[in-house]
Amino acid sequence: MGETVFSNFRENNLAHKGSICLLAWSPCGSRLLSTDKNGLLAVWKPEERGIFVQQSIIQKGQSAVTHITFRSKKSMKSDDGDAPTYYFAGEDGIVYYGSDDKTKVQELFRLESPDGGTSGIAALVYYEEADELIAINEHMMMKRISGPDDSGQIKEISSGKIAAKSLHETNVMMRAIWISSGLLMTSSGENLLRFWKLSEDENYVLRVSDPKVPPDDKIHSVAYSEKRRILCAGTSKGYVLFWSHNISSSQSSSADDWYPMLRATVKLGMTVIDLQWAKHHGFLSASTDKSVHILVENELQRKVRDQVAMVQISNKHLGFLPNFWAGNSPLKLTEVECGVPIKGCDITKSNILVWSGRKAEVYEINSLTNHHTFTSSFNTNATTMVIGSYFPNEPLYIYMANDSEIEVANLEGTITKRLPVEEVEGEPVYLDCHGTWLVASTSKNYIHIWDVSTTKRKSVLSRKFEEGDVPIADIVSVKINSMGSKVSILARGSSDASKAEIVDTKIWVFDVVSDSFYSYEFGPDYYPVNHFWDTADITEGKKENEIEKEGFKAREKAGNLLGCEIKYRGEMKDFGAEIFKINRAEVVTFFATTEKGLLLQDRFPITSEGSVLLGLQIPHLFLSAPKSDEATGNSTIQIQSKVLRDFVGMELVNFQTRWALLEFSYNLTLGNMDEAYKAVKLIKGPNVWKNMAHMCVKTSRLDVAEVCLSNMGDAKGARAVRLARQEKEREAQIAMVAIQLGLIEDAERLYVSCGRYDLLNKMYQACGLWEKAVETAQKKDRINLKGTYYAWGRYLENVGDHKAAIACYEKADAHRTEVPRMFYEMKDISSCEEYVRKANDKVLFGWMAKYFESKQKLDVALNYYKQAEDFMSIVRIRCFQRNFEAAEEVVNESGSGPAAYYLASQYEAMEKPKDAIRLFSKSGRYNHAVRLARENGLDKELLPLAIRCNKRVMLECAKYLEERQMYEQAVVLYKNGGNSSRALQICFDAKLFDSLRAISDDLGSDTDPDLLQKVGDFFMSHSQYDKAVQLFVTCKQPKHALELCEKYKVEMTETMAEKITELLPEKEADAELRNSMLKRIADICVQQQNYHLATKKYTQAGMKDKAMDALLKSGDTEKIIFFAGVLRSKEIYIRAANYLQTQNWHTEPEIMKKIIEFYNKAKAYKQLGMFYDSCSQVEIDEYRDYEKALDALKESKKYLVKADEDCTMLDRRIQLIEVFVRAKSLVKDDPNEFVQTCYQLLETPKLDVAVQVGDVFALLIEFFFSEQDFQQCYQLIEKMRQRRILLGPYLDQSMVDTIYRKMNIHVPADNDEVDEEIDSDM
Predict the structure, then answer these.
(1) Alpha-carbon distance 1256 to 1277, whole Å?
(2) Residue 305 needs a FRET pair 20 to 30 A away by CA distance; which of 506, 759, 871, 1052 works?
(3) Please, what's the largest Cα pairwise distance for the chain?
(4) Of 665 and 826, the one with more pLDDT
(5) How many secondary structure helices (H) and strands (E) does the chain include?
(6) In three state form, how does the secondary structure of 154-181 look?
(7) 854-875: pLDDT as tens digits
C-alpha cells in the first residue's frame, strides 16, 4: 500500500511579500505557479518528500496577477523536458508568455478599456486544438491570438467588444469553461450564458427559461459535467439550474442543443458562489457564503405493469397511465402528489405504492376515469418494497424488505406473514414481483425465489451470485420473468486499489432450470441502467389445450423476452466528428434461452433527449419522454411506444398470428431460418418477410433472402440479388441483399470484411455518399479514384452545381474534355474561354482552337493553337492558306516533327522531292526520305538517310547501292544492318581494307569459319596481333589465341581471359587440358605483371601455391589475408604470415593479430615463438617497455616448447628481464635493494642479450638524480662513457648538463659517440 504524506510548504522569504492571489499546477504536475497582489510570479518545482525548489521569480509590473493558463507542449517544436510554458495576466490588462527561464518572458499584448484606460483581465483561456489564446477584460474587450512561434511572433486571429455588460456594472466575477472542442461558454453576471463556436466563428446565447427563477436574477457560477453532458448554473438568489446537452447530428452547435431540466431546479436560498461536479459520482457541490450543499443525482423510478405505466416526476410527484394503448401519438400522464419523499414506488392495475424509508402510502386508481384516491399510509423502515401482481377477486399484498426477513402485509400495512431469509444469505436488499413469483437479492449476493401463488408462499430456491466458488459482483437490481424460470441481474464491482465503484458492463441472467448464470457483454463504453421482462400475457383468454392445438409451445417462449436500457460512458472530447455516431442511450432486447444463453434480438438508439425505457409488453417497448411547454415553461412527461422489430405492421393481430410472429422472432434470433420460415409461411404481411430478409443478411442465407424479396413483391431487388451471385465472395452477395433492404451499414461492413472496396465505392456512389466514396477510393481503391471523382462530377453537373463539378473533373483528370463539353452543352462559350485562360492548359487551348477553326475563325484558332503548341495544326492552316513560307518558318522555329512531316507531305504532292526529303528527315521519317531519294535517283543522299532507318530499310538500300557498285556505302549499311558476312565479302572482293578493320570487331561465332580464318590471316599479315587474338577467340580457337599472346606478348585482359576460360572443356570432361590452359593464361599474366588475374587463374587450375606466389608478388596485403583465409592451407597460412612479418606489423595491431592467427591455424609453433621473440625485442628497442617484452618472451617460450625447441638461452633472457623489471618496481618501496640489484645486473656477463646496459645505467642515474646525489650520477655517466655507451638514447641532455654543472665540471664533447653514430649510419 502506498502512503500519502501531507506537509506544510513555506515559500522562500525572498519570493512573495504581498498576499497570494493564485496557485496553479501545470497539467503534468511538474510545476506549481504562485502569484501575489504586487505582480510577482514564482515558479516552483516539487521534489521528493514535499520539498519545493524555486525555479524562477518573475516581476512584471506592480498589479496583481489573477489569471494563468498553460500552453500544450505538443503545440511547440522545442522540447524543454518537463518545464511547461504558460500565459499569465492580471489587473493591468497585459498578457505575458513565460517559462522557467525568466529571461525569455515576453509581453504579448495589452487589453484596454474602450476609452484607452486600464482594464483588468477577466478571463484567460487556451484553445489547445488550434493552439490559440482567448483573453477578455473587465470591459468585455476580447482578443484571440495564436503563438508565439519560435521567433516570438504572435498572430492576431480576431479582436473586438462583446455585446455584454462590463463587470463593473454586474459586479460578478466572469467564468469561462470549455464545453467541447472549440465550444467555449462564458458567464458575466447576466441572466444568460454565452457560447462561442471558435472553429466556425459563430456564437449564441442560452437564456434562463425556468418560470420559478425571477427575471432579475443573475448567474454567479457555472459547471459542466462532460461525462453526463449536464450544465449547471448558480444564481444570486440561490437557484441551481440544469441543462442537458443534446449534441445534434448536424454537427452545428446552437441553443436548441440545450434541454432545460426544469424539474431538477433547486433553491438554496443564498447566492451560489461556486459549483463543482464530482469526477466519478453523481454529486454536485454548491457553495454559498455560509454553507456547502451536496446535491445527489437520483435515477427516477418508472415501471410498466399490468397494463399500467408509472413514472416518477419529481421528489414528491409521480404520474400514471392505466389501460394505455400503443399508438403513434405520445400520451400524457395523470400526476399524483405524494405525502412523502419518494424513495421507491410500485404499481399494479388497481393500486400505487410509494415509500420513503420511514413511511409508505397506498393509492387506488380507477382505470376508467384515470382518477386516484388515497387509501392508506403506515410507518415502515423498509427500504425496498413491492406490491403483488393483480389477480381478479384476489387480495393484494405488499412485500417489504426489513432486516433479515421479508414482511408480507395487506394494503393497510398490517403484517400477515414473514418470509425468513437465512443468516448465511444476509439481509434482503432488492425485491421484484412478477405474476406469482417473488425474487429477492441479499446483502451477501444471494438470490432467493418464492412462489406466492398461494397463501403459503413457498420458497423455491436460494442461489449465490457466483461462478464456481468465485463471487461475480455486487447485485444492484434483480427482475424475475412471468414464469419464474429466469432472473435478470445488474451488478457492480469495485477497484482493489481505490475501492471506487465500477459499473458492470454486463447484464446477467440466472436460469432456474439449468441452475447457472450467463451474461451479455455490452463493451467497455456502455453499461446497463435498467432491465425489464416482457409483461404481456399473449395466452390471455386461451385454454392450455387450445394453445397446444395451435401448435405452439407457449410456456417455453412466454416471458423469455428481456429488454435492457444501456448508456454510453466513454469520453466525448476525443472523437471529433465521430461523436455524432455515438448513441448516448440505447435499448437492447434479448431472448433468454437455457441452451444458448442470452441471444441479441435487436438494438436501437434512444434518439429523444431525456427519454428512458419504461418496460416491455409484446409487441411494444414503452419509453417516457419529457416535453417542455413553450408557453408556460413547464415540463411534462409523456409515454411513447415503439413496436418491436419483428412485429412492425402486425401490432393488432389475433392470438395465432401473434404466436407465429413470436416463434418467428425467436427462431430468427437463433439464426434458424428454416424454422422461422415455417412459422410465418402463411402470413402475407410484407413486414414479416422484410424482417426475415434483414436476418438473412446477418445469417448469410442468400437462398432465403431471395424468397423474402419475392414475397415482399420486390422484383427489382430479387433480380439484383440473382446478378450478385456472379461475385465470388459470399459477403459481397449478401451485401447486395442488404442494399436492397436499405441496410447500408450492414452492406458497408460486409464489403469491408471481404475486401471488396470497389463495390463499397459503387454503393456509396449509388447512395449519394460521395465524400465516403472518395475517402474509400483514396485509401483502399486507388485504381478507381479518378473514376469516382468523374462520377461525382457528372452527378454535380446534373444537379446544377457546375463549380463543384469542375473541381471533381479536375481531380479525375477529365477536365480537359468534360469541362469544355459541359460549357458547350450549356452554350456558354465565354465562360469556357475564361476557364481555359485561367487553366493555362495546352489541351484546353487545343480544344478552343478546334472550336474556333470549326467556326472559320482561323486567326483566333491560330492564336489558341500557338498557346497549345500544336504546331502541326498551325502548319496545316498555313498550308490551307497557301502560305508555305510561314509554314516552313513555324517548322524551323518549333522543330516539331509532326509539323515537318505534314509540310513534307505537301511538298511531295507539289513534286518538290528535295524539300520533301529535307523535311521528312527533320520530322524523323527517314523511310519516307529514303523512298523519295530512290524514286528520284538521289543516290548520294541515300547513305545518311538510310543509316538512320531500321535494319530492313538499311539492307534494302545496301543491296540497292551494291547493284550500283557503290561498295563502300553498301558495306556501311550491310554492317549496320547486321549482315557482317556480306560486308566482309564485299571488302575482300573490292579490297576495302580500311572497312575490313572497322567491321572486324562485330564478328561473332555465327560468322562463316573460313571467312573468319581469312580475316585472321589478314590481321596477321598486317601485324595487328591483338585483333587476330580477339578474332581467334571469337572463332573458338583458344590454343591459337594463347600462342599469339605468348609469342607476340599481346596483353591478356580480364575480359579476354574469361572468354578463353568459357571455351575450355569442363573439369569433368577433360580436367588435365582445362588446368593446363588455365596455367598458360596465368603464366602470361605473371609475365605481364597482372598478378591478381594470375592468382585467379592459378586458383581455378587448383595451383594454390602458384596462386599465392602471384599474390605475394602483387603486395596487396588485404587480398593476401583474404586469400589465405579462403584457401585454409597450412603452407598458405605460413607463407601469408611470413609475408605479413615484412610489413609494419608493430604499428598495425590488425596485421599482428593475423600473423598470430595464421601461425596458430598452421600449427607453426616455432615460427610463432620466433615472432613473439621479435615482438619482445621491438618493445625493448623501440619503447623500452620491459614488462611487455617479458610477456612476449613468455609467450615465445610457450610456443617453442610446443615445437620441442631448446629454450635454455630464452630462459636466461627471461630471468634477466624479470630481475630488471623487479628492480624497477623496488625504486619506491626498497631503494637499497633496488640499487644493489642494478649494480649486480651491471656486473652480469652478457647482460645485453636480454637487457640493454644503457637502460640499467639510466635507471640508476635517474634514481640518484632524484636523490640529489650528483657524485654518484657523475660516476655512473663516466662508466657509460668508458663502456662506449651512447648517452643520448638513455639520458635527457638537460639532466646531464645539470649533473656536470653541480660537479663544476665542463661537459665534454662526446666524440666517441659521434664516431659511433657515423659507424652505425654507415
Answers:
(1) 12
(2) 506
(3) 148
(4) 826
(5) 46, 55
(6) CEEEEEEECCCCCHHHHCCCCEEEEEEC
(7) 888 888 888 888 888 888 888 8
With beta carbons less than 8 A apart as the criterion, state whether 708 and 692 touch: yes
Per-position b or e across 12-34, b if 16+ CB within 10 A of its CB:
eeeebeeeebbebebeeeebbbb
Contact 395, 410 (CB under 8 A): yes
Asked whether the bond before 944 is cis by omega within 30 degrees of 0, the reply is: no
Question: How far is the C-alpha of 1056 from the C-alpha of 1042, rounded, in Å?
Answer: 10
249-258, 420-429, 896-905: the lowest-pLDDT one: 249-258
Instruction: Identify whether the C-beta of residue 586 lies closer than 8 Å to the C-beta of residue 553.
Output: no
The 3 state secondary structure assigned to 426-488 is CCEEEEEEECCEEEEEECCCEEEEEECCCCCCEEEEEEECEECCEECCEEEEEEECCCCCEEE
Per the model's pLDDT, the better-predicted residue between 1155 and 219 turns out to be 219
State CA 127 to chain mean position distance: 24
Least confident span in 321-335, 532-546, 641-655, 1126-1140:
532-546
Residue 409 burial by CB count (10 A; 0-12/13-18/19+): exposed, middle or buried?
Answer: buried
DSSP 88: E
Cα(1122)–Cα(1246) distance, rounded to whole angstroms? 44
Residue 808, C-alpha cell as written in the block: 471533381
At residue 563, the pLDDT reads 92
pLDDT of residue 1316: 43
> Do residues 33 and 43 touch, judged by C-beta distance below 8 A?
yes
Region 1231-1238 average pLDDT: 85
Q: Name beta bridge partners: 599.
A: 591
- Three cell numbers, residue 419: 418470509
Cell numbers given for 555: 410456456
Q: Which three cell numbers stand for residue 632?
A: 408556460
The reported pLDDT for the residue numbered 541 is 46
Question: What confidence tens digit (pLDDT) does each residue in 797-806 have?
Answer: 999 999 999 9
What are the beta bridge partners of residue 519? 508
Task: List residues bridging with 98 in a β-sheet.
Answer: 86
CA angle 604, 609, 613 (to 5 degrees): 50
At residue 812, what are phi and psi to the nearest 5 degrees? -85, 0
DSSP 562-615: EEEEEEE-S-STT-GGGGGG--SEEEEEEEEETTTEEEEEEEEE--STT-EEEE
Nearest residue to 45 (alpha-carbon basis) of 23, 62, 61, 29: 29
Summarize pLDDT for 376-417 with one digit per residue, the tens. 999 998 989 999 887 777 888 999 998 889 999 999 999 999
Residue with the bigger pLDDT between 1210 and 293: it is 293
Instruction: Find out whether 38 and 51 touch, Cβ atoms under 8 Å.
Output: no
Task: List pLDDT tens digits, range 1072-1121.
Answer: 787 778 788 777 787 777 777 777 777 777 777 777 777 677 777 777 77
**DSSP structural state of residue 698:** H
921, containing H or E segment: helix 913-923
- At 1195, phi and psi to the nearest 5? -65, -40
**Residue 179 backbone phi and psi in degrees, to 5:** -90, -45
Distance in angstroms (rounded) separating the CA atoms of residues 877 and 795 = 39
Asked if pLDDT for residue 498 goes beyond 50, the answer is: no
CB atoms closer than 10 angstroms to residue 1215: 11
Distance between CA 684 and CA 650 in Å, rounded? 11
User: Reduced to 3 states, what is the DSSP secondary structure of residue 393?
Assistant: coil
Which of 256, 255, 260 minimizes the C-alpha distance to 240?
260
- Which residues does residue 822 pair with via DSSP β-bridges, in sequence order? none
CB-based contact 948:933 (threshold 8 Å): no
- State yes or no: pLDDT of 1225 exceeds 60: yes
- Element spanning 377, H or E: strand 372-379
Q: How far apart are CA 1092 and CA 551, in angstroms?
A: 100
Is residue 491 a contact partner of residue 474, using CB atoms and an 8 Å limit? yes
